[in-house]
């Protein structure tokens, strides 16, 4: 009996299940769409986790019981068994909580039915889950999911999509207009977010909001990013027009606020010197998603996305950064 199975067959079926889920969700008219989509999405996750176990020469079966058939691991148990095999940058906790919330919806769909109002939440959770799946597929199996998907979709509809963050905020504020099941689900999502934040893991692996917006070219001033292809041959590629974002919204933190939020790192005070050393080593200040600098050069602000990156720094990386930064300063001093 081969207790590992073939990771190639498991991987093939995992990818097929995910592509089927995406195809079903993007059909313009399909009853029971959300339910079928989530069932296939979680099936894809169970298969890819078993493929990960198989590739690492681990069993995908429960221990055999006498006079009972062989049973493969469930989704939750497959994640438990293979969590230490996840690639760097993919912490198990937010991925686990994301899949657990989706499983709650899946179980209700299979055994009962779901109350109205779950759609916007499920969409946001599922989008994040697909990104996690894509990253795992690429990091652990060197497979790029994008090569199998035609991304030229036509997201047209008579009703605008609901922003899940606005939906959650509205339900929290009023406590009305939704069933007890939806309110309980929102509470579980909030608890999971707090738990992930408490460990310093990336909450973007739990829930991320993706927005698709169709804008008239006559209203280009209202779009954040507009990309168009020129008709003539005078340019080599697409024309991109990017609208600046208010740094007070996208990068609200000063260095002092970051130091206060982190407090300590691996038993030592998170000082400005430590922050500068890590920023220099990892190039955080050169990443516009993490750092914004005024053109006058007198103001530097940071994004909230920097906080989980700092918390994920290992003790060894911290010491290496401090040593390299010290040596860099010494060389700089000698050259002046």
Summarize it.
This protein is mostly helical and 336 residues long. It has twelve helices and six strands.
Overview of this structure, please?
- The protein is mainly alpha-helical and 336 residues long.
- The protein folds into 3 domains: 7-150 and 160-205, no CATH class; 217-243, no CATH class; 248-335.
- It is built from 12 helices and 6 strands.
- A hairpin with a 6-residue loop joins strand 5 and strand 6 (300-302).
- Helix 1 runs antiparallel to helix 2, helix 2 (33-55) crosses helix 4 (92-111) and helix 4 (92-111) runs antiparallel to helix 7.
Order of helices and strands: HHHHHHHEEHHEEHEEHH
Number of domains in the coordinates?
3
Kindly state the mean pLDDT as a whole number?
Answer: 79
Strand-pairing-aware structural class: mainly alpha
Helical segment tally? 12
**Could you give a short account of the major beta sheet?**
2 strands, antiparallel
Strand order of the largest sheet: 1-2
What percent strand?
5-15%
